[in-house]
């Protein structure tokens, strides 16, 4: 039987390791003057555009569980998370840095997998890895991702710009990543004491993909640009629809009405939710990690935005005094709260 | 007896905590269009300039020991570390983001101290805190700092530009931070079992300051700009003179000669080194964390650079075939090696 090769991190040294890992990331962006290999990356911002910057850190045991999270997918997902914050400003991502804290228990081959995922996401999303370091951490894996992007000043969409009667739009569907996580957790519990566990995921592949390998919605920002639609406000859906919409309403000093039956749910989401006795709307409102975009546009753009076929209009902005409510099909109103259910 | 107030992180919640901490950082940079409070920061790069970006992460138990590292100083030092990488490109820092992983064991008051240090450094260095998050970590404190800066394209100094006969210049003095760390470690060992420890630091305050609260050398980059001196290459001294000079030589495909008696050492560094039977030159070569700048200038600038009174010329660049050596006063040559002694 062939044994899988195991290289210790110490064999390569810090610099050798960084060269090996960053070498996998071959996408180059035109705006990068100097990428990996100096004290800092040097970027030439596109003429007259603003630069955007955001940082997120992910901790093993808090944000991901390596017992069921393949490292390659993890690499892909942290890039998505970083990029998604740039997209949420209606801007396009161009560079990332990845700072890695690793226990010496992990072999180099595990980090290879992680960086294959990062490299794949960078190629797919046309984002250049321009820096980062790899250090020892005392315990689990820590990944810190900084994403840079650019946009014309007048195109940038803030959380704070939603206006009266604006339409509340969302991309994709919600709650699928949360249900994917529930599925993984269930299989782990069931198979905890089994020697050769064969988890059953048949029919729920989409949910796993949404949790393990969510795609950032670059396509939406590109399309909005082509259509010359400038959202009045925007945020990405990472904490769940309720929490993220409340953040947007708070920043815009407004209220909102969203309609329960308009919240887009994937078939697999409702199926697994039924099977597990979870309300799929609760998964959408509080599950999080959807990496879809939530934005508002003026009412006058209703036809144009619907014609795109890329977004669902789930409600509209109202004065702050009217509060923030979910409207049920029978006309009942449930106040939106931020606390998650997990 | 008055009890020190202890607020649990959970009492404030994630958003309340971030508001409280980032609220301390009041410096605003003219190039920031949007700082803390949205999905990403928005920066307007100064007309025609390049943007620089770098990320560093610091782990409790690896990079710092909270038993003797005051949190306020730690906050200051991580800002210095971030800024220093921007300065090392001959560029000026303008923004930082700080991403924090904290154990729930830490009270909010401890994070207040940390952010007072961050805020102090930001005010002093005129750098705006424009983002970051605060998350639970399973174990120790993790701090990830991204620094942004800007410079004219033609002013940026890379590691790779050193030319034949260029002078090797360094700012400040070396090895002091390493000796400061040795002092702290010694006092901790001595006082480990003492009930009310009173560590003895008299006469070595400078060493403690260099380790606990190193100042970034923004003054040097400003002065070089005013004097219209463009270094041919540059790096900041974080891993020790030997390792950092070797990095610069490798990137520039050149060799170097540096002279032992020209390496600047502070009086306190040599005094404590004598007392602890450490060779102070070893501290300078391999100690690290000096956060001084190492750079090269053409030989023709010798007089101008000496006149500044801010740097020491410790050697010069030679062809790669001549290797990289430390020359002793008796004319002996010791090959420079990268490995640290700690």
Gyration radius from CA atoms of chain A, angstroms:
21 Å
CATH class call of the largest domain in chain A: Alpha Beta
**Average pLDDT figure of chain A:** 93
Describe the global form of chain A. Answer: globular
CATH architectural type of the largest domain in chain A: Alpha-Beta Complex
> At the third CATH level, what is the topology name of the largest domain in chain A?
Phosphoribosyl-aminoimidazole Synthetase, Chain A, domain 2
Strand percentage of chain A lies at: 15-25%
The ordered string of helix (H) and strand (E) elements of chain A is HEEEHEHEEEEHHHEHEHHEHEEE
Strand order of the largest sheet of chain A: 9-11-8-12-10-13-14
| Overall tally of domains of chain A | 2
Tally of individual helices of chain A: 10
State the largest interface: A-B, 58 and 58 residues
Contiguous low-pLDDT stretches of chain A (5 residues minimum) are none
The helix-and-strand class of chain A reads alpha+beta
Features:
homodimer, 342 residues, alpha+beta, 60s Ribosomal Protein L30, Chain: A, Phosphoribosyl-aminoimidazole Synthetase, Chain A, domain 2, 2 domains, 7-stranded mixed sheet, 5-stranded mixed sheet, 14 strands, 25% strand
């Amino acid at each position: 039987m062939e044994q899988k090769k195991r290289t210790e991190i110490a064999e390569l040294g810090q610099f050798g390791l960084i060269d090996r890992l960053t070498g996998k990331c071959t996408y180059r962006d035109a705006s990068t003057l100097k990428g990996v290999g100096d004290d800092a990356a040097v970027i030439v911002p596109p003429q007259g555009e603003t630069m955007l910057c955001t940082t997120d850190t992910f901790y093993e045991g808090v944000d991901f569980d390596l017992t069921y999270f393949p490292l390659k997918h993890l690499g892909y997902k942290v890039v998505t998370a970083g990029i998604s914050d740039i997209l949420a400003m209606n801007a396009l991502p161009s560079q990332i840095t990845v700072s890695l804290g690793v226990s010496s228990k992990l072999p180099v081959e595990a980090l290879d997998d992680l960086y294959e995922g990062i490299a794949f996401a960078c190629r797919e999303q046309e984002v250049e890895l321009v820096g980062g370091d790899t250090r020892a951490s005392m315990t689990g894996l820590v990944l810190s991702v900084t994403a840079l992007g650019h946009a014309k000043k007048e195109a940038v969409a803030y959380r704070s710009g939603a206006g009266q009667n604006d339409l509340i739009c969302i991309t994709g569907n919600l709650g699928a990543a949360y249900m994917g996580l529930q599925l993984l957790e269930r299989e782990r519990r069931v198979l905890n004491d089994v020697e050769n566990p064969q988890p059953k995921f048949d029919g729920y592949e989409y949910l796993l993909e949404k949790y393990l390998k969510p795609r950032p919605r670059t396509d939406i920002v590109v399309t909005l640009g082509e259509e010359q639609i400038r959202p009045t406000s925007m945020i990405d859906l990472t904490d769940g629809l309720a929490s993220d919409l409340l953040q947007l309403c708070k920043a815009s000093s407004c209220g909102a009405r969203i309609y329960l039956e308009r919240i887009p749910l994937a078939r697999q989401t409702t199926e697994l939710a039924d099977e597990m006795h979870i309300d799929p709307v609760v998964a959408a409102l509080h599950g999080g990690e959807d990496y879809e975009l939530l934005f508002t546009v003026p009412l006058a753009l209703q036809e144009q935005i619907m014609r795109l076929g890329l977004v669902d209009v789930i409600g509209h902005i109202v004065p702050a005094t009217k509060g923030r409510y979910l409207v049920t099909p029978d006309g009942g109103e449930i106040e939106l709260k931020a606390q998650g259910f997990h």
